[in-house]
Amino acid sequence: MATATETAPVSRPQIRRTQLLIDGRWCDSVSGETFATYHPATEEKIADVAQANAEDVDRAVKAARRAFDEGPWHDMDARDRGALMLKLADLIEQNAEELAALETLDNGKPISDAKAADVPLVIDCLRYYAGWADKIKGDTVPIRGNYFCYTRREPLGVVGQIIPWNFPALMVAWKWGPALAAGCTIVMKPAEQTPLSCLRMADLALEAGIPPGVINVVPGYGETGAALVAHPDVDKIAFTGSTEVGQIIMRDAAQTLKRVTLELGGKSPNVVFADCDMDAAVAGAEFGLFFNQGQCCCAGSRVFVEDSIHQEFVERLVDRAKGRQLGDPFSPATGQGPQVDKDQFEKIMNYIERGKEAGADCKTGGGRWGEKGFFVEPTVFDNVSDDMDIATDEIFGPVMSVLPFSEFDEVVERSNKTLYGLAAAVWTRDVAKAHRLAAQVKAGTVWVNCYDVFDAAAPFGGFKMSGIGRELGEASLSNYTELKTVTMSLD
Ligand code: NAP
Ligand code: MG
Questions:
Q1: What does the pLDDT read at residue 74?
Q2: Which protein residue has the closest C-alpha to ligand 1 atom 32?
């Protein structure tokens, strides 16, 4: 049985940082402007945060440039850089409770998720990349003639990083980890809805001894991100967010031929065959869609279920959806919190209406939960057809579409009938069938008999309009390095 302290709501964290971080100093924006951030469960304002404009972005880029060109980052021994990253990971671990509570306050996610998933993954990611810092190396290349030819992997330079609000701290770690390991310097723009954990992590980076100018943080809206994309002295943009903004960034980055990596949206198929372990598949379908209030780029939002088990599967899924505990995200018992803001809430409610109008069968949910906060009832639509908006568009909320199927080839074709290609999953006891589907589905990640298994070592990213490039793993390091070929005459 849970003790009283395990069930009592976690207390709200202190907000320590709300300014810009430029060149190791906390400062207001040049304009003096701020923007408000809110707690999505109560809709109350929690802080005013300094809002960076193009001039602030320019100051931050100059600081990052200096730290890169003149040192100390560029000149630092790679092993020492790795040690500083380990120190940052240790400090985050020491302040894990505070960071988890900041995520819950700013984003609305349940405190139990923030503690068990977000923060441990942040720490793990930074430690993983700290280990890479002194292992990035080139090759010797046998070429024709009397030459010694070798390659060097050099840090790319100043990188602009623009992140979303769904996993605020984790997105920081996915971006900082490989960039710091490679020896780049950073100007980061957190999402306007959730700047607080990023600012606190930047504070801890300074405390860890990461030198001034290596990490700069410029909170703001889309224009702040656009200023970073337009800046001629930024060498690369790493972006996570919507496909629409990804397209704008790619177009705008063409002006200066910046390197661009994009981690964008998805409409991932979760394919359930009749020969699956039904308990595991039902639980996996629930987790794959409803985790993080459905605000996951890889959410398993199209659940394809084989005809012969369709009815039983939907009944069991609906029971689980009804059993989800919504409420105060600071309560450890809460399994589902509010959506991040009013815009997202309204977008989701609009999709639910469109699903109903199109004739999909709303088995459970479909409405707002409670009177305060941006809560949406866990919603399951059955008998969804491929061309309905709820089956084609990224909803980014707790809305599942169930689509019955009968044949293997049919489900592969329908799974791939999307602009996206981020993730997919398959549930079956037939190993060959699982491998066949894994090979034929056009997605950057395929989970077999599991969902949302993430590890810092395993690459993640999209096919098609889900993005360009890979995050995590060794693959991400190539996003932050340039390859140089050196050829020396031996005559
Ligand atoms: P978004 O507009 O793509 O925002 C992502 C980030 O890009 C934010 O930091 C945003 O600033 C910034 N941004 C916006 N316009 C920009 C521009 N022109 N140049 C540079 N940066 C710019 O996403 P959203 O509006 O928060 O959410 C909309 C939809 O995107 C969601 O419903 C969901 O479908 C999708 N999404 C996907 C992911 C993912 O992980 N792939 C994450 C979040 C959302 P602001 O803070 O001002 O918006
Ligand atoms: Mg907020």
A1: 80
A2: 396
Q: Ligand 1: which of 57, 171, 174, 242 to mutate, most ligand atoms within 8 Å of CB?
A: 242
Res 1: pLDDT: 45
Residue 297 falls in the annotated catalytic set: yes
State the distance from the centre of ligand 2 to the C-alpha of 341, rounded, in angstroms: 7
The per-residue b/e assignment along 397-421, b for 16 or more CB within 10 angstroms, e otherwise, is: bbbbbbbbbeebeebbebbbebebb
Mean pLDDT across the stretch 50-62? 98
Strand locations in 80-214 (E): 140-141, 147-155, 158-162, 185-189
Q: Please provide the average confidence, as pLDDT, over all residues in the chain.
A: 97
Per-residue H/E/C for 243-302: HHHHHHHHHHHCCCCCEEEEECCCCCEEEECCCCCHHHHHHHHHHHHHHHHHCCCCCCCE
Tell me the pLDDT band of 334, cut-offs 50, 70 and 90.
Answer: very high
Residues lining ion ligand 2 (Cβ < 5 A) are 37-38, 106, 193
The CA-based angle 71-75-77, given to 5 degrees, is 135
Query: Using CA positions, which residue lies closest to atom 14 of ligand 1?
Result: 222
* 3-state DSSP assignment of residue 57: helix
Query: Is the pLDDT assigned to residue 5 strictly greater than 80?
Result: no
Closest-approaching ligand to the CA atom of 194:
2
- What is the DSSP secondary-structure string of 350-389? HHHHHHHHTT-EEEE--SB-SSSSS-B--EEEES--TTSH
The fraction of the chain above a pLDDT of 90, given in percent, is 97
125 is catalytic: no
Amino acid at 297: C
- Non-local (6+) Cβ contacts of 110 within 8 A are 104, 329, 334, 335, 336, 337
pLDDT value for 71: 84
CA distance 237 to 258: 7
Q: Whose CA is nearest to atom 40 of ligand 1?
A: 297
Q: Pairing between strand 185-189 and 158-162? A: parallel
User: What is the arithmetic mean of pLDDT over 7-33?
Assistant: 96
Q: Beta-carbon neighbour count of residue 171 at 10 Å?
A: 28
Among the residues of 365-467, which ranges form H helices?
Answer: 389-392, 408-415, 431-440
Q: What is the SS3 assignment for 113?
A: helix
Q: Which is the catalytic residue, given 276, 296, 297, 298?
A: 297
Distance between Cα 163 and ligand 1 center (Å): 7
Element (H, E) at 46: strand 44-50
Q: Give pLDDT tens digits for 196-227.
A: 999 999 999 999 999 999 999 999 999 999 99
Contact 212, 24 (CB under 8 A): yes
